[in-house]
Amino acid sequence: MDAKDLLRIIDDGENAELECKAAKGGLPKDVWETYSAFANTNGGIILLGVEQKGQEFFPVHVDAKKLVKDFWDGINNPQRISKNILVDRNVEIVEVDGKEIVKIYVPRASREDKPIYIGHNPFTGTYRRNYEGDYKCTKEEVQRMIADQSPIPQDSKVLPNYGLNDLNMESVRSYRNRFSSLKPDHPWNGLELKEFLYKIGALGKLRETNEEGLTLAGLLMFGEERSITEYLPQYFLEYREKSLDVPGERWTDRIISSDGTWSGNLYDFYFKVIRRLTDDLNIPFQMEGLFRKDDTRVHAALREALVNTLAHADYYGQRGIVIEKEKMLFRFSNPGVLRIPLQQALKGGISDPRNPTIFKMFMLIGLGERAGSGIENIHLAWKEQHWTAPELIEEFQPDRTILTLRTTSLLPQESVDFLKAVLGKHYKFLTNDEVLILVTAHQENYVTNTRLQSLTDKKSDEISKLLSVLVEKGYLEPNGQGRGTKYTLTEMFHQKSIGNSRYNRISSGPNVNNSGPNAANSGPNENEQTKDHEKVLLDISELARKKKRLNPSEMDEIILNLCAIKPLTLKELSQLLNRQMDPLRKKYISRLLREGKLELLYPEQVNHPKQAYMTRSLFNQH
């Protein structure tokens, strides 16, 4: 890394992947917390000799050589830190403006090495990273990391007190029928039930005692929900579908594992859900017997996404598996973070499923591709349709992996028309990359550097330059700092939306997708009501837009009055109040939620992409 690259990183400021420390008095004690946090999350860069004043960062004079020596002494001391995962090239001295800066690159630790912790006790010395800095892990987070260390797969565990009586025999019979139809000459078809279950990994024996029992994979795949939750109390499967905008209805179709009308196991859940995911795709496929032939890549990609979700889930984790289908997207969410680095997962070719036996069971009946090819195949399918690239993210507290597949065009005509209407003659001066960035911000409410890397073939520094240019032009507004910054369209776009309902993604509310067929059929009463809402919202928020500083109680009152009219997203509130999103969320929204004055539109999924806020009275109406 040269000085120019380092200056760009400093200019980006601190974020989830960067920590700057002045280190004027020597090696800071909290450097080990940051080392632990980066190693246990997604890696990052520590800069020693960089001071922060306000929102600005700049180099200061330090004894760089001594800092490097002290750092290596400390990281190789098992009394100080549990393990050194760095090599010599991870630590270097870079000169900037005549001052020496120590750059330390901390990679993401392998699952075998996690948790990386300070001192002797992982339960008191383990840290992770979020956009607010380093935080100490809970006991449960540490336990999940320790569990993932084991070379023995989670789902191969034999449960000696669970047997055939805990299985749903209809599920088992259905599986055997599918297996024999796909592989009519396979020798396992002639086996007795217990022997067949042993071969596929659903039944096992404890070698020490020769005691027989279901494996965890067998219980999850074929068990009765009551038996599964006796062993895993937090086990929960859910499918949500919202295909119509029906007032008062949050979902038009919903399946949960605990309703008592079906087995509640993974095998039956898969087939209940996959039909719903694919039944109205405008991409035809053919059926031949029980199995699809001449499948399109999209059908295969959805099957792959569902199998991966079930095979990678941490069934000891919180909040269960949630599959969502809306007009223009599919979302697959499971407890547990990836067991390989996120970038490696996106590239494909390498896989480390948490439940390989469950993965094997699906593969035996023709579902699921070879290990490591799933995400690659999904990307290829979406690319063929010219749809927005899949988005794969990890969340912490609690640990979750979320795959979002949008069926929107990379350049939807409605968004292109919107940009042309706002920018007029200036639109033709935009580059193709700039159009893609602005369209993505319009479609997804904001863009980030990481998201744009998945949509283009450009590197982080190239994207940073593009974003900076759009900010300078007044088209994008940054919220936050560094590579985690979220960029939203500026007020000039919002004003156009307010003035023209054709392009108004904001005023339509979080559950309305204007590109869907119902948008064209909305009657005049609905349009009049929308315009009335717009006027009321603008009137209520006028004071906040005009005054940069308001008494907190005044701002509270304005926010509550706005959210009593309709559910509003953070971006909508930010634009109405003329405030940046991050400070607005931290100072007001989070507190009002804690105090019970605001409610979430999607309380079961805090990080729902269309999350909005409303007052309790409006929540009761919904």
From TrEMBL:
Superkingdom field: Bacteria
Compositionally biased intervals (Low complexity): 507-525
Gene source species: Parageobacillus toebii NBRC 107807
Pfam family, one: SLFN_AlbA_2
Record protein name field: HTH transcriptional regulator
Region (Disordered): 506-532
Start and end residues of each Schlafen AlbA-2 domain: 14-129
